[in-house]
Amino acid sequence: MHAKIKLQEIPELLDAEIIQGDAAENSIEGAYCSDLLSDVMANATEGNALITIQAHKNTVAVASLYGAPCIIICNNRPVPEDMIEAARDERIAIYRCSRNQFQVSGTLYRKMLDS
Amino acid sequence: MTAGFPLDPVTGPSRILELLYNMKVRDVMSADIKTASRHSPLRDIQILMKENSITGVPIVEGSRLVGMVSMDDIIRALEDGRIGHPAESGMSRNLIVLEDDMPLSFAISYMEKYHFGRFPVINKNRELVGIITSRDIIVHLLISINRELEQLEEQDRAPAQQALEGSLNRKWYTHKFDFEEAGKASTEIKKIMKEKRPDIPPKLLRRIAVAGYELEMNQVVHSEGGHIEFQLDADAAVIRAEDRGPGIPDLENALTEGWSTANEWVRSLGFGAGMGLPNTRRVADEFTIESDESGTRAKAIFYLYKSGEE
After folding, report:
1. pTM of structure
2. What is the mean pLDDT of the segment spanning B155-160?
3. Crossing angle for the helix pair B134-157 and B104-114, to the nearest 10 degrees
4. Which chain B residues are closer than 8 Å to A36 by Cβ?
């Protein structure tokens, strides 16, 4: 699955709000869904969006270490200000939506297959 | 900032940071405390201050701290004609206290944050054991800095250590449960690698970042704190992680995926999945670890120009 999804399509696709819009990349290639940061470190690949409910500064560190273009926070979990700042510094977008990880993964997966 | 310690506990010189984190509040506080009871008249406390040249008196019940009377409280009592009243009528009750085994850096950041001239110090059993003032901190820091400088001069006189041609060394400190700064070492290691060795394969870069991150998080989650050292030589990158204990009782288990001793709230943040050490061992070209009560020492080596990696 090598299809890409443009970052600017994501908010509409997931009915998500843009918490932090500045990003170094303009598209994602696949996604990784996990709330265990060590698991993300071990298994996510560069270009994957990170789908998670872990909304804190360290999520940004992990995302930046493996090379995530964006982080998608599910279940409308609150995003702290220091996380937003860290993401701005690292130029990783943050989107937040009310859907859960399963729904977000499913939507992105189907979109990848279609494109 | 009234107190204004010109010390940056994040980016300051590493020797100073080491002092700030290795010195404990109990090493610096004065344990000879003059206290008074809640029934002592404020006038007696004023006299106690004068005779002992101190600016604050803890009010205690047995060994339990119930309040604090400062010079400001005395002045206010004098202005209002309440100097004959008991201590409890003029003392501050909302006290910010320090614990005796906190690193000195905490005391400094409290001084900056709350602008008090002194803090009562309590022990694990919440008993009053001392008092710490900005003067105590300055005096003890100066003593330690003198000692450090003496050592430095000593080293200068000794034959110069061989500095490897083109090698680079960096060090970061980690602190127990300080998730704020965690991830810093690994992020910077990745940046250094990108800058100094732009030609290394992305997979290798990734492996180095994973090891750095896991070793760093291990110290934050499980140890009393420690440091991460990064050494970049011509053909290898080395990450060393050393902490101050309590050590890993069962290394075999700790290297098994899924085995974890992390507590609930650490896990709720997405850490402590029991993958840290196994991940590190998996990504490193060489990995050694040893541990006892004094601490854990781990080393991960990466060969930069092994063939075959993309």
Report:
1. 0.57
2. 60
3. 140
4. 270, 273, 275
